[in-house]
Amino acid sequence: MGTRRFMIRVLMLLSWSTSIGAAVDCTTVTDLLSVCASFISYGSPDPYPGSPCCEAVTNLNLMTHSTDNRRSLCGCFMGLITASNPNSTAIATLPGFCGVPLGFTIKPDTDCDSYIF
């Protein structure tokens, strides 16, 4: 039931962000990644494709249909890394565990504006 509510929420967010064409909002990113909190905080359990955490990463990737959105998502991840240090490694490994290429490297010194998406 929780996964179903999560997916409905994600679909609503996706339709909202697509309709207004706005950049990805970091509050939305944080909210979606909240299902990964255990992994981000404790390093376990590992997320896997199809898990709620990986579904969140996949949905974030689906929201980045433009260069501006991808840069915004990159900036949000960089903010999460800064705020979650020393757990930044867990955040950086999420796309790899989930098999979702975001188009940028998640590490503290990433310059999101330099990426050509």
From TrEMBL:
Residues covered by the Bifunctional inhibitor/plant lipid transfer protein/seed storage helical domain: 26-112
Supply the CDD domains for this chain.
nsLTP1
Q: Where is the signal peptide?
A: 1-22
UniProt xrefs under Gene3D superfamilies: Plant lipid-transfer and hydrophobic proteins
Superkingdom is Eukaryota
- Keyword S-adenosyl-L-methionine appears in the UniProt entry: no
Which key words tag this protein in UniProt? Lipid-binding, Signal, Transport
Coiled-coil-forming residues are: none
Q: Transport: is it a keyword of this entry?
A: yes
Q: Which family does it belong to?
A: Belongs to the plant LTP family.
Summarize the protein's role: Plant non-specific lipid-transfer proteins transfer phospholipids as well as galactolipids across membranes. May play a role in wax or cutin deposition in the cell walls of expanding epidermal cells and certain secretory tissues.
Protein name stated in the entry: Non-specific lipid-transfer protein
